[in-house]
Amino acid sequence: MLERLTSSDWKSVKPALFIGLALALLQIGSGLAAYYQSKNLLWEGKYQTAHNLTQGLVVAVADQIVLKDYASIESRMQQTMSNMEVASTVLTDTTGKVLTHLKRAPDQAPRLVFEPSWIPTPQAQEALQSRDEAFITTWSKVSLGQDLGWVRVQTYKALDSADLVGLRQQTWLLSVLSVVSGVIILGVFLWRAYFTVVQREQMIEVKLDEATRRLVQSEKLASLGELAAGVAHEINNPVGYVSSNLSTLQKYLAVYEKVLDAPEAQSDSGHNLAALKKKLNYPFIRDDMQNLMRETQEGVGRVKTIIQDLKDYARTNAAAHYTAADIHIGLKSTLNIAHNQLKNRAEVRLKLGHLPLIECAPAQIDQVLLNLIVNAAQAMPDGQMGWIDIRTQCDDTVVRIDVQDNGPGIPAAILEKIFDPFFTTKDPGTGTGLGLSVSQNIIQLHGGTLAVNSTVGVGTTFTITLPIKRPAA
Questions:
Q1: Per-position DSSP letters for 356-382, written without gaps between them
Q2: If you classify domain 321-467 with CATH, what class do you get?
Q3: I need a surface site. Which of 46, 89, 92, 104 has the fewest CB within 10 A?
């Protein structure tokens, strides 16, 4: 069959072959990049674990330092070293004089050591986390109104801990799926090109729809990859203060035990229960426990919300999922999972009108909003905090969404190309060039429009219009 192809036939086949090859290489490259980046993700997890342990220890020992309760300090350091990744914990004063030092050999119980009596503490310009041949060393200053000293925690730097096995397996799975997906896409496009020549494009519409769906999902996977590290960081924040609250609650439970045992103590030594409660500051602890439990519940709720929003965003984009949806709910969920991309780059200002439910595929609209918001944040110059205004309004038939920023703007020569597939101004390896192309396609499939207006040095505004009722196919 191939020998019967004419030069004009090959000319019609070549674009499909090149597009298929480019998509396959993109997916295969994504898989290989995920593999080589897995070690960096593992190190980030190790550093974050060490940071959380150190911060928890700082919170736990701050008040004991003021009281010079070294027995409680040592007990709290022992609790930190119950984590088998911790090799040593050191508490010093502000000059570096060692107050308490616990150390362990691999797989051994921690022990109290007395040498050295002084260690150098970090200077202002030095990093508070470092890594050598054996350990990750984390420093944190103990402050309670004023500087009280330093805490140093050393954790083993081995990457094969049980806590990180799941992350490694997920990274490998993503790599394998990306490579397999790239091979499948290449095969699909080669098959399509062959039958385009043989059957004279009798099946072109079906294949075009399939390719469009794959492009949408491919861009969503790329977005999820960019968001993964930020979401992990967002989860670590509430988990950190939940861990700290649980440590404080453990101390409070010890006070409760003393109060519960007070009748026996009274019969033995004649101590008064009211005096004992006053000595242990029992009324404060009773009130503070409620606050700690409420904060802990808020932290767990925050983690649950982030995971649910990410799960909702990752849903399939099948056209059968058209339903009456509240655009504002999807917008707030999108801002939640993109929070790490936005902080320190742009302040989001919402000016939301009263919108009816519109008939749409909510996951697809969320993907478009995420692309526009993240692009606006990434366009902000480094070190400059910008703003992003999101406005919604409607009339009897159409809903309008404006996403406006005060970034550097888009030059006219580039503005006419931004919706072209694979066109990107980002550095190689940091953008697929599919975000705006896929977004425009999604909005057009909904019977709406995606327009842009930009002025260099002033900012850019993307405007989405969507019909309230889905138009007939």
A1: --EEE-HHHHHHHHHHHHHHHHHTSPT
A2: alpha beta
A3: 104
Instruction: Compute the radius of gyration of the chain from its Cα atoms.
Output: 29
Q: What is the rounded CA–CA span in Å between residue 67 and residue 155?
A: 28
List the helix and strand counts (H, then E) for the chain.
Answer: 12, 13
Q: Is the omega angle on the peptide bond into residue 116 within 30 degrees of 0, that is, cis?
A: yes
The C-alpha atoms of residue 456 and residue 380 are separated, in whole angstroms, by 13
* Residue that has been written with the tokens 């425009």 in this structure: 440
Nearest to 58, CA basis, from 77, 71, 75: 77
Question: pLDDT per position in the chain (473 positions), as tens?
Answer: 444 556 665 666 666 667 766 766 776 666 666 656 666 777 787 888 888 888 888 888 888 888 888 888 888 888 888 888 888 999 998 888 998 999 988 888 888 888 888 999 888 655 688 888 888 899 988 888 888 889 999 988 776 555 456 655 666 676 677 667 767 776 776 676 666 655 555 566 666 666 666 665 565 555 555 555 555 555 666 666 567 667 777 777 777 667 666 665 444 444 566 676 666 676 777 777 777 777 777 667 666 666 665 565 555 444 447 889 999 988 988 888 777 778 888 999 999 999 999 999 888 888 889 889 988 888 888 888 899 999 999 988 999 999 999 999 988 888 888 887 767 766 655 555 667 877 888 898 889 999 999 999 899 999 999 999 887 75
Burial class (CB in 10 A: 0-12, 13-18, 19+), 275: exposed
Residue with tokens 């597939």: 421
- Picking from 262, 293, 292, the residue whose alpha carbon sits closest to that of residue 280 is 262
**Is 57:89 a contact under the CB 8 Å cutoff?**
yes
CATH 3.30.565.10 in the chain, residues?
321-467
What fold does the segment set 1-202 form as a domain? Answer: Beta-Lactamase (3.30.450)
